[in-house]
Sequence to fold (682 residues):
Amino acid sequence: MTVTVGDIGEFGLIGRIAQEAFTAPDEALGFQDDAALWRQGDGWLIATTDALVEDVDFRLNTFSWEDIGWKALAANLSDIAAMGGVPRGAFVTLCLPAGIEAADVLAFYKGMAPLAQEAQTPILGGDLSSSEQIVVSITVLGEVESRERVLRRATARVGDQIAVTGVLGNAAAGLALLEGGGNENQDYAARYIAAQRRPIPRLREGQALLEAGVRCGMDISDGLAADLQKLCTASGVRAEIILERIPTDPDLPLVFGDSHRLHAMSGGEDFELLFVAPPDTMQRAQDHLREKALEQVTVIGTIVAGQRGAVTVRDERGNVVPLSHEGFDHFGAAGIPLAGA
Amino acid sequence: MTVTVGDIGEFGLIGRIAQEAFTAPDEALGFQDDAALWRQGDGWLIATTDALVEDVDFRLNTFSWEDIGWKALAANLSDIAAMGGVPRGAFVTLCLPAGIEAADVLAFYKGMAPLAQEAQTPILGGDLSSSEQIVVSITVLGEVESRERVLRRATARVGDQIAVTGVLGNAAAGLALLEGGGNENQDYAARYIAAQRRPIPRLREGQALLEAGVRCGMDISDGLAADLQKLCTASGVRAEIILERIPTDPDLPLVFGDSHRLHAMSGGEDFELLFVAPPDTMQRAQDHLREKALEQVTVIGTIVAGQRGAVTVRDERGNVVPLSHEGFDHFGAAGIPLAGA
Fold:
């Protein structure tokens, strides 16, 4: 019997690869956290790499080349934000069919430019290659102040509060509108489609969380439920969240109806930050981000003892919400258990 | 009229992208040299990225997964060697169909491990994604001592000698044997096929060239003729090389017949170093690499004034050799002019 990549799934494979590959001393966190971290001369560098594949991560009939460039860079910058890092430069590899118009390739880089400039992340180099399917692979390098002053996944403790920045579900709503051909002309539709095509990495929020003393966090790329499960697995803890506390855009029910918060919880690509801190630090973080006029912070639950990696969702009355939604695994593996009570 | 990527070609596009993208101050050489170079804290970092695509750079019926892992890492390490750098870590992105066996993915990382260990280049992180075609994209980070102490393409001067490490054409012969189904059982066949599947990046040679005072060089990935043309274009000079001086394996005529040196000149993927230096420095480099028991150095020609980027090939009697071979462009563009006299 053979076991395929699809059977094991993206997250199962990563663990096995870490055993097989020639890896670094334990200072390299690249197999567990959003970015790798290592000492370089007198500083600490972080780096992350993320690929976007045509018809998996975007479609040419709903994404412009500018959109693809923006989103590919944004997804990588978000992994730097997830550690609280400062990005310093990007390497961009683009594989595409020879029949694509040259102007489209330039549009791809043009779409990336305003975000690269805003984040002060120059494109330092890259590679072009031919392929049947478009594949964009970006590596972003950044800096952090020290090994300790960083957002990590393994540092959640029982009693900590769980919070997110911004609102969740907009990117999923945008995807639903693009794929389902919904009411794209409505006001909210433009907002949701922009969230899907041109997400904003929360770089300043990540740095501000570090300033407030937060040391546990990640970005929400695969969906809140799936990503919280990863954080809890890394920390050896369990999470309880309250469904109604998940912050959503007021118009989200217009796309997802009554189950809009379930969609907000399972939908990926919002690229908001998910983080965990003791109550006093959490209060400081909320105040600090408000003072800096950054994204709002919403507390959605608590870290508790129990089955490692389990995420329990309750409604406001305390009843466990049965979940069928799962986070995004690139190989479609059903590897993410959402525990009941 | 639309202009496709195939019309402009890989190297034409890179120049236009550098104008379009948000790029760094001039210290970032990633668009011109083999690797980007920038100051980081108290040191100088270099980084390079290179992708391998199924059925473009390898085929699953002639490459094992171990071979793919080795070659993808080797191609990137070679770009670090091309600058004379010391590699420090790698990021590996693998896009592949969900139906691939998990054991194959582990074999890919296993194939990379001995080379990563030899080069002291741990795998610091990466990404897995699903795609129809296998795409491997690797970014390698490394260090150099200073901005000046590095091999670059733009520093060739009239009167300099042109040299290469090792022998050329073995990887092309290996590819011909694999693709043409030649005499794979001959002694030489195993050697050539290994050169194609498991090339050795010339890291110690690149560092030794710097020690000897060489400051101009690159690796030969697209073929000597094409790569020398790039070096001459970057330096604003012309090159004259003598066909018979191109170092080749004694058995190469068994694969390529009388035109074996033309194949050695046009065939890519040898990952030897091509470098240029004044005669006294060249002598020092030859002696230094011999003392260190590294690859042999062979002088094959001279840098001369004239049409920027032109490469003239003569036979030993001084006659110009007419050339029809061209270097490898990922989009098949015929963008590489090989000038006559």
